[in-house]
Amino acid sequence: MKSVTFMEPTLVDVLLATYNGSRYLAQQLDSILAQTHTSWRILVSDDGSSDETLAILQRYGERLGERLVLVPNPAAGKGVVCNFENLMQASLNDGLARWAVFADQDDVWLPEKIASQLGEMVRIEGGDADAVPCLVHSDLTVVDEALTVLSPSFARYQRMDPAVCSQLSLLSVNQVTGCTMMVNRALLARALPLPAETIMHDWWCALISGSGRRSFVDKPLILYRQHGANQLGAKDRGLKTRLMRMLTDGRGVVQRVRVLGRATRLQAEALRERLREQGADGGYVSEYLFWRSRPLWARLAGYRHYYFGPELDRLSRCLLWF
Q: Structural domain boundaries of the chain?
C-alpha cells in the first residue's frame, strides 16, 4: 500500500481478515457493497487460505478496483490476532481513512451499519478526533448458517450490558464485539503494535478506548452467523447450561477459568505499561491490578465492582483468579 499525506473526509477502511472463508465470504462482501454510506475501502489480509477465498477476492477486486486492497501478510498462518494487526497497521500507515471498521468473513452487515456507527463516532469525537482514542460498537442479531434468527440481541443472549461496562470491568470481561467495532486513527496509533500479552485484538482495542471515549449503539447492525467453524461465537450463558458444563467437564471449566485469569492479569499489565509510555492516565489499571493482588477475603468484599456478568461468573473469577 502506498503511503499518503492526506485523508479523505468521509472514507472508512473496512478491515477484513480472511482464512478459508469461501463458503460465506461473497455474502459478506455483498453486504458491504450494499452499505448506505458509500465512502469505504476494503483492506483484506489473508491468513494462508487453501480454499477458494483468494479466487473470490480476485473476482470482487476486478469489480471494485482500488476499493479492494489485498494487504500482504508477512505473518500468514499465525492466527486471527496477527491477521487483524496486519490490517490495523496497514490502515494506520496508509493514512487515507480517518476511521476503520473490523469485519469477519462470515457475517452479513445491515445496510446502515457503517452510517449509524460513523454518525455516533463523529458525535463522541467532538473536536478531539486527532488526540482522543474513540471506539463505537453495536449489538448484533444472532443467526444460524442459513441466517435464521436465533436471538434478536446478542447482548441480551449473552446476558451482557455493554452500554454500562466500565474501564475496570473491561479488564476482566470483554463486552465489545470485534466485528461491530469502529475505531478512529488515534485509537489505532495507541493500540499498535499489539503486545504479546494481547488475548484478542478487539479486546485490546476496547481496553485502549478506556483511556478515551467509547459508545454502544443499542441496536443490531450485523447478522452474526453461528456455524461449526466460528473462531468465537455466541454461547448459551444460562444457569442451566453452565451447571451442565460443570457436571460434565468440571475440571476443564476450572482450568480454562484459571488460564483466562492469568491472561487477563498479563494483558492488564501490558496496558498499564502502554499507557505509561504514551503519557496517558492508567491509574484505574493500577487500581485493578492492586485489587487482583489482594488476599481472597479482601477481594470478596468488592468483587462486584471489578467483575461484570452473571453472579456465577463473578464468583468463579474471584475464587480462581489470582
A: 12-225, 239-320
